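Incident log, structure service

09:12 report received: a user says their structure output differs between two submissions of the same chain.
09:20 pulled the input from the user's history:
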Amino acid sequence: MVSAADQLVVALDVSTEAEAARLVRSLGSSVRTYKVGLELYTAEGPKLVRDLVSSRKNVFLDLKYHDIPHTVAAAVRQAGQLQVDMLTVHAAGGLTMLQAACEAAREIGQELKVLAVTVLTSMHEEQLQGTGIAGPVKDQVLRLAALALKAGCHGLVSSAQEVRLLRAEFGEEFLAVTPGVRPRGSDVGDQVRVVTPAEAIAAGATHIVVGRPIIAASDPAREAEKILQEIAVQSVA
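09:34 re-ran on a clean worker, output below:
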């Protein structure tokens, strides 16, 4: 059984290395995996990732690569040099781009996981239609998931509201990573399709990503521990 500590990913949604370092120190050994996204990576660059890896933390590099296949493959190779554990690509980039990303990850010769982002958790049906995609959000999630798994991606990023559908359609042999997770009573911010940690795990998520509820807490370590306990209880339910 996967431990709760392996399922929780804390999003370092801060703007400086100093803020990130303070948060990592405050969480100590209870958190093993950190997400580095666009804001922090743009501000601080690859050195921050190297520092996390050298301190024996796992890194989920969430830059959502979406470009021509050659460029995405080259970016994946560079991420591999940083020794990150997981990275994201946009499934909407198409089959050839996704295949190029997965092939580049295999060439690296390490356990680098390529995760395909389906539909952002900040989007609802009306917003999706505004991009030219007709129909329910769940239909687009399923279409993009099928494409990503066909290409060889190791996992999918979606709202936990769609994880149960993905498991029913595609089985258990892929990582299901769910952002937009909020402990009950938390401010949802700009997220739309949100669930609690327990609901995400019950739906079949292998990893949950939590940012602001931990970062903004007066005691981040205590908040992380509460979430870890919620995951652990649900995992044995």
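09:41 both user submissions now match this output. Likely a transient worker issue. Closing.
09:42 reviewer note: The first strand starts at residue 8 and ends at 11. The domain at 4-235 is CATH 3.20.20.70 (TIM Barrel).
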